[in-house]
Design goal:
With 358 residues, the chain is α/β, with parallel strands linked by helices. It is 21% helix and 23% strand. It has helices at 33-48, 65-80, 105-114, 176-193, 209-216, 235-242; strands spanning 9-10, 16-22, 52-55, 86-88, 133-138, 145-152, 158-163, 166-170, 198-202, 218-219, 245-250, 259-262, 265-269, 309-316, 322-329, 334-335, 339-340. A hairpin with a 2-residue loop joins strand 7 (158-163) and strand 8 (166-170). The longest helix is centred in the middle third of the chain and has 18 residues, at 176-193. The radius of gyration is 20 Å and the shape is globular. The protein starts with 8 loop residues before the first strand and ends in an 18-residue tail after the last strand.
């Protein structure tokens, strides 16, 4: 555990708090890709001037513990130079299960994060995973907690038995203990402080991210399927009942960076922040613009079809609302992207067959 004195987050004098979400950098020590991704991320920090950087998983992934943490240390040393605090949510590629249950990559990453003074990462209850924690953002005069930032561990995936006798490994759902912890923690805040606006960071998107493009419409890029757990965890219903949650921000899907609102809660992807070209060839089924489609026959699939970047999230102390969120790209552009209307009417929909009949 770290005994370093951690920074206290607080709102600016104008009542705003800016977060830069970086996700899925997939640092692999491959030629110059890592260096280019890190340099680009640093340029984004300089440009957006955030009060907090939120890493949402799969930053330094796979490989031996020492190699994985070495990459992460090198990245964080550059990030530390900006003097900006950061939180960290582990991705599915940053966790594995060792025989003793204690020596997986996730524990090595936790140790690395705890060494850095600007890291606000906490392990939380390890019975629930590694990295279930809440970080407060104080009012501009530091007299009270103004917002709460929650983080949940996505684990490394689990095995499901959809067909008797056949096990399939897929993304893990958020475990019941995690949802109970989040609800209990926030209910306690409400009992002590009243309403406390909150957002949630999680690597793997919730099932409700599918609802956005199907029934509500989205802004931004939808370049692949929503890669979520195959069963719902009931978390969104809890967030809705708590009444304070303004947004959920995920990563995991490298060519999705869309955003939308479901029942008053913003659901949004970060923007892939890495240089892993192998993961950036869009899938043909998704709602892509022409610029995001597969390359023409005979053209290399490794052309850069998807400009990487990050997501900016602006919170407002005075209104208690999520003031705005947008994607900021490494090429210097930013925005929420084009609007794509919903694919179906929420209460009266069907999937047409090839013949056009339901």
């Amino acid at each position: 555990m770290s005994f370093l004195k951690k920074p206290v987050l607080k709102f600016r004098e104008d009542g705003t708090f800016r977060i830069l979400q970086l996700t899925d950098m997939h640092l692999f020590d491959v030629e110059g890709r890592d260096r280019a991704a890190v340099d680009s991320a640093c340029g984004l920090i300089e440009r957006e001037k955030p009060d907090l950087i939120a890493f949402t998983g799969d930053i330094s992934c796979d490989g031996e513990r020492s190699v994985c943490t070495g990459r992460l240390d090198a990245l964080l040393e550059k990030i530390d130079a900006f003097g900006v605090p950061y939180t960290y949510t582990l991705g599915n590629h940053e966790s594995d299960v060792a025989p003793d249950g204690k020596s997986g990559r996730q524990f090595a990453i936790a140790e690395t994060l705890e060494k850095h003074e600007l890291s606000l990462f906490e392990r939380g209850d390890e019975a629930l995973g590694v990295g279930n924690y809440m970080v407060p953002v104080m009012s501009r005069d530091k007299s009270r907690m103004a917002w709460a930032l929650y983080h949940l561990d996505c684990h490394s995936g689990i095995k499901y038995e959809f067909t008797p006798g056949q096990l399939t490994r897929r993304d893990s759902y958020i475990l019941p203990g995690q949802t109970e912890w989040l609800e209990k923690t926030h209910r306690k805040l409400q009992s002590e402080l009243g309403s406390v606006p909150a957002i949630l960071f999680d690597h793997v998107p919730l099932a409700e991210f599918d609802d956005l493009w199907m029934f509500d419409g989205i802004w931004g890029d939808h370049g692949e399927m929503v890669c979520r757990a195959p069963v719902g965890e009931g978390l969104f219903g809890i967030l809705l009942r708590l009444g304070d949650f303004r947004g959920v921000f995920a990563g995991h899907d490298h060519t999705n960076s869309f955003q939308g609102q479901l029942m008053g809660i913003t659901l949004a992807y970060g923007r892939c922040s890495g240089n892993c070209r192998w993961a950036l060839w869009p899938r043909p089924h998704a709602l892509q613009s022409e610029a995001r489609r597969h390359p023409p026959e005979g053209e290399s699939p490794y052309r850069d079809y998807f400009v990487r970047g990050g997501r900016v999230i602006v919170l407002n102390e005075d209104t208690g609302r999520l003031e705005k969120t947008y994607v900021s790209l490494y090429d210097g552009t930013s925005g929420i992207g084009e609007y794509t209307p919903p694919a179906f009417d929420r209460f009266n929909y069907f999937i047409p067959s090839d013949g056009g009949r339901a």
